[in-house]
Amino acid sequence: MGAERNEIKYQLIKLVHSGRTLTEAKSIMKAASGALHPEYTSAKDIKNLATLEGGLNRLAMTRNQAKNLAYKKFFKPRNDFPSTREESLAKFATGWKGKLPLNWKRDGNLIRRGPLNKPRPNSSAGKVRQTKVIGVENVLSGFKILFKELAALEKVGSKKGKGMVKSAMKSVKTSVKAGLN
Length: 181
Hints:
This protein is mainly alpha-helical and 181 residues long. 49% of the residues lie in helices and 0% in strands. It has helices at residues 3-18, 25-35, 43-59, 63-68, 85-94, 136-156, 164-171. The mean pLDDT is 77.
């Protein structure tokens, strides 16, 4: 594990313990990014979240972007993240409007005063629970049903489903809560 990952884990634990994670957007983004690492989140949850984020990202594309990526399907997890997978999924889950990649320079209250301590491997073990991603499978199954119904409406020739995709996309809500052992 590199020094960068140790820094991310340190900031995740300190931000959650300091109580800032639920009040400041950048802290929430950093904590969610740290918590979405495979060490804390199951591969299935990460794949489902990436699938939902990728599908919604494809729906929000411009016409030219959609033409260039037309061969991709909605239900395929996204692989072309603008930053790391964890940071990109955390941005989606938290609704953060800032740029990626994140600047992992420590915030003011995380800067150590005094001499540095030597890093201790696995010192974060047991401090952060497994991350839970709730409701993604239900949303994905709902979108599958929506697309089947839209395909059926297109075959019949009805124009009723014209705005259904956009309204369904806007109805997806995400939130993040912090919890420790």
